[in-house]
Recover the amino acids of this structure.
């Protein structure tokens, strides 16, 4: 995907996520997401922080005593104190902007909206389609060793092949399925992905 296509997809995903959030009940906001220890509310709050600038990011990192993962978690939990009707308008306000956190590529925001969209939708039993070309571009960015996923290390000994896109990586026993499920797998959502995958390598994923 070229840069314009990547950002068009990010915009589309943010707008459709905003529509999803508009429709949530109070109980659904509190539902555990696929991210361990995070509610749907926390994941939504995290997505609204994608425009965090250098100064705010530095302050958050200092507050987290230099721990990057702690900074991400703490920032999301602070943002999650906002009223739930805040998040959809915040996501819609991002559409059309290519602002992103320092240092990262254009593909990290794409990974965020695609994967975190599933982190919320799957536990809520909401169908959320993932564009195959965008999922493949995101999976290429994750593989082999994008922090914190380290996918090639975790999935050593298997070959991943998409059944709905010309995408494959790795060496070993075959694991195949939709690229959306493979993206969940390489980003550490094994339990959510494995039911949609097949092949002799699936038994090795545990």
């Amino acid at each position: 995907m070229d840069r314009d296509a990547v950002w068009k997809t990010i915009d589309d995903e943010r707008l459709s996520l905003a529509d999803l959030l508009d429709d949530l009940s109070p109980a659904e906001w509190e539902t555990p997401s696929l991210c361990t220890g995070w509610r749907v509310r926390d994941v939504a709050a995290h997505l609204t922080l994608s425009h965090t600038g250098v100064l705010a990011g530095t302050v958050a990192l200092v507050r987290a005593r230099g721990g990057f993962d702690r900074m991400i978690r703490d920032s999301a939990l602070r943002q999650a104190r906002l009223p739930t009707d805040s998040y959809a308008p915040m996501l819609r306000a991002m559409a059309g902007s290519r602002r992103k956190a320092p240092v990262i590529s254009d593909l990290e925001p794409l990974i965020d909206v695609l994967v975190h969209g599933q982190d919320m939708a799957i536990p809520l039993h909401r169908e959320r389609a993932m564009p195959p070309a965008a999922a493949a571009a995101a999976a290429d960015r994750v593989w082999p060793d994008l922090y914190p996923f380290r996918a090639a290390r975790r999935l050593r000994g298997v070959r991943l092949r998409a059944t709905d896109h010309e995408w494959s990586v790795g060496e070993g026993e075959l694991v195949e399925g939709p690229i959306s499920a493979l993206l969940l797998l390489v980003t550490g959502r094994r339990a959510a992905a494995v039911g949609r995958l097949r092949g002799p390598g699936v038994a090795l994923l545990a």
